[in-house]
Amino acid sequence: MTSTQSVFRDGLLAGQSAFITGGTSGINLGIACRFAEAGANVTILGRNPEKAAQAAEEVRAFGSKVLAVTADVRDYAALEGAIRTSVEAHGPIDILINGAAGNFPAPAVGISSNGFKAVVDIDLVGTFNACRAAFEHLRKPGARVLSISATQGSVASMMQAHVCAAKAGIEMLTRVLALEWGAAGVRVNAIAPGGVEDTEGMRRLAPSPAIMTKLAEGVPLKRFASRSEIAEVALFLASPAASYIHGAVLAVDGGHAHAGFGTSAVLG
């Protein structure tokens, strides 16, 4: 795993409250840990209570207040309840991270209608639900929304029809909310990671070391990102250094999208 040395000052998010959907694993757990390390009080949301509690312990090691809540982002009422619990514990939300996602590699003819709908509902509808349910708590100058997209949102990729559709929707939703919520002082952006080491998504797309090595050769930087590298970008977009970045979708993929990865079979 590639290590990174942070360029940010200590306590950058001190006293702020971050609500992170999908925060129990992968990229989003990495963001939760980084935000806690930067001083934020963190709420992580997942569907599995035991997994959420374990993740909260990992985040708590960084010294901030941490709350684990459970809900399915497809269930709007449950999501509203989780957000209210977070606000009661940590105060109004300053940063919303939309990270809940689903993925499985399959050709379009191998995806059932229910399978396609499940990915779109978790990724896209779940992102909207979290934004909509959190808005009244976010509605203040300086609040930030950051959605986790993927390079599949802008580059057509074989065996990813469901994910491409969902992530493209997230990116357009990001731009629309930027137009509508900017006047309220809420900055809305998205990150589009490429392949990231040590995540469930990468394990599904590259189920063996040989496939991982082959895919990494197609990345101009000849490697995939570490979770910490994505977390540093998230911290940047949540920081005052990004105070005039609004409605942006920032690709963090080592230049992979420029190499035409979407035209080759995902599994080699």
Molecular structure report:
This protein is 42% helix and 13% strand. Helix 4 packs parallel to helix 5. By secondary structure, it is α/β, with parallel strands linked by helices. It has a single domain, classed as 3-Layer(aba) Sandwich (Rossmann fold), CATH 3.40.50.720. The two termini are 23 Å apart. The chain has 8 helices and 7 strands. Strands 3-2-1-4-5-6-7 form a 7-stranded parallel sheet, with helices on both faces. Strand 1, helix 1 and strand 2 form a beta-alpha-beta unit.
Strand content: 5-15%
Helix count, DSSP H or I runs of 4 or more residues = 8
| Derived structural class | alpha/beta
Distance between the termini: 23 Å
Task: Write down the CATH class.
Answer: Alpha Beta
CATH-defined architecture: 3-Layer(aba) Sandwich
* SSE succession: EHEHEHEHEHEHHHE
What is the topology, as strand order, of the major beta sheet? 3-2-1-4-5-6-7
Rg over C-alpha atoms, rounded to the nearest angstrom:
17 Å
What value does the average pLDDT take?
Answer: 93
Q: Which stretches are poorly predicted, pLDDT < 50 over at least 5 residues? A: 263-268
Name the CATH homologous superfamily: NAD(P)-binding Rossmann-like Domain
Helix percent band: 40-55%
CATH topology: Rossmann fold
Largest sheet: 7 strands, parallel
What is the overall silhouette?
globular
Overall structural domain count: 1
Give the number of DSSP strands.
7
